[in-house]
Structures are given as structure tokens and as C-alpha cells.
Amino acid sequence: MSLFKDKKIPYLNLIPIILLSLILFRIVYHIELVTNALSIFISYISSFIWAFGIAYLLNPVMVNIEKKFHTKRNLTLLIIYICVLGIIVFSITILTPSIGESIRELTVSTPEYISKTRIWFYENMDKVQLLDKYGITKYLDETTLTLMSNLSKYLNTGISVALLTAVGFTSSFMKFLLGFVVSLYLLKDKESLILNIKRLIYAILKKENADGFIKFSKEANYIFSGFVIGKFIDSVIIGIICFVGLSILRIPNAMLISLIVGITNMIPYFGPLIGMVPAFFITLFFSPIKAFWVLLFIIILQQFDGLYLGPKILGKSVGLSPLLIILAILIGGGTFGVLGMFLAVPTMAIILLIVERFINRKLAEKDIEL
Length: 370
Hints:
Blueprint (H helix, E strand, L loop, with lengths): L1 H5 L8 H15 L1 H14 L1 H24 L3 H54 L2 H5 L2 H32 L1 H20 L1 H15 L2 H42 L5 H11 L5 H17 L1 H27 L7 H44 L5
Helix pairs in contact: 4-5, 4-8, 5-7, 5-12, 9-10, 10-11, 10-13, 10-14, 11-12, 12-13
């Protein structure tokens, strides 16, 4: 018996590798089925994803209130959720009708705005004799006519898509409400949940590996929370300043433009440019002169954000060079769209942290100092 017991079966250690390879092959071969199943699974747990996101955003507020005022958890959550509900009700009753009216007015008045813009363009081009001498005026007239026609078509198409998307808003809103309620319980039992997760990690991993994983998780949380929450606050402030400034300049659709500028400002570097383009063209239909002032105002506003407000709020929570930020945005946007552009920056910071730790460990093993 001992002879067979001591004798090893050849290639036994290759069995797990072969099984894993077969599983990966089946997954790649049926990638569409896997993707569909994954999307269905995500739709089922979307309420919990909303809950985690809401709890993650509100957790710093809860922690700060409890530290400064020494309030009990239930009272803290009551204050926070009453304020959040107030903001939601204000958005639904005040902001949403105003934005909807701006979109409706823009849709109805698009032909009139295009006609006014063409007339203004023709009148001003006729005054420039030098351009007319070389046939540039005629070329610009034809190009402008084509551009305005296409722009009207694209604008109407975009608004139609937005209205069709709004039809499915009810389902998403219900998931958000359920996630909003579940987030309350996540925050209430936060310490208990974190403790159970730590117990699971230490039960699965070795102590030194678990310690390293917990430390890395805290650093990743610092990077993500610092960027996401800081950028959210920064974008809200920029949206408010934009609305006040455009209202003073008497720009039409100021609420809609400010919403676009605030949302797109969440995307680093490219966000201001993305928000500037629709803001300019929306105003261009009403008045080319006002469109120029809108463009100038948004440029000044984004410079203020980039040079002063952004660094004040975000600080060094990410710590990436501009080159790495641009690279992260391009990769994230090309892979996952707008959401990928937003989350690419903190994700790149975490990847850089992992790579830096790996390099430092390898250099230390080789006793190399650089």
C-alpha cells in the first residue's frame, strides 16, 4: 500500500490548468451569452449598486457630522436623508420643469434660430470685401448652410433620443429609490459590515497578505473617495456659478447650459471642452453675439476651476501627471464611454500605486536603490 501511496501520479498538477483553460475557452467561445448573462445579472442587482454608490457618497458627510457634533447614528442619518430628499424634491419640482421647458422651446424654435443665424452671417460676410474678392464668402455661405442644416437634424435627432430614453426613466428611478432606502441600512450598519468583510478576508488569506490587502483597500478608498466626492462638489459649484453668470448676461436657456457644463465638468481635462460645444451652439441659434459671450464666459470659468477651485477642493487626492490623466481618460472613454472617462483617473492612480509597490519590492529584493 505504501508503495502506491508514495508513488505520484504523473502530470497530476496539470489537471487544474487544463480545467481552467477549458472554462476560459468556453467563456470566450460563448462571449455573447456571457455578456448577456452578465448584463441581466447587473440589472437585477442595480438597486444594490445604487445603494452602494449613494452610501459611498454620503458616508464622508455622516462621518464629519458625527465627529463635529457628536450626534448619534440615527439622528445623523435622519438629518442627512432629509436634506437629500429636499434636494431631490427641489430638483423635481423646480429644476426639471425649467430644463424641460428649455428643451421644448429649443426644439420648437430651432428653424427660427437657424434663419436668424444665417441672416446675421450673410449680412456680416457681405461687409468683408476681401473675402468676397477671392470667392471665400461664397464658400463660407455654402458651408454654413450645410452646417446649419446638419446641425438642426442632429439636434432634433439628439432630442428625440433623449425623449425616448426618458421613457425608460421610470424603471431606473424606481431602482434608484430602492437603492436610496437600502443605502440607509448600509450606513446604519457600516461598522458591522466592514467587520464581517475583514473577518472573511483574514479567514481566506494569510495574516500578512490580509494586512497588505486591508492597507491597500484603505489607500484605494482614499483615492476614489477624494476624487469622486471632490469632483462632484467642484462640478456643483461650477454649475451654480455658471447659472449665476449666464443669468447676469441674460443668456437664454441658462439652466440647461449650466446643467450641461456642470455634468461635463466631472470629466477631467476634456469635460470643459465637451460642455462648451453644446453651450455655444445652443446660444448660437438665439444670438451669435451672445454665443460669443457664452464661449468667453465658460473659458474664463474653466480657467478659474482649473487654476484655483479644482486644486483647492481636490488637492493631491490623485497625484497623477497630466500625461497619465489624459492617457487614462482616452483609454477609459474608448472602453466604457463617459463613465469610463470619469472613473479612469482614480483607476489609473490605483494601478500606478500597485505598479509602484511592485517595483519597490523587486528593487528591495535585489538590494538596488534608485
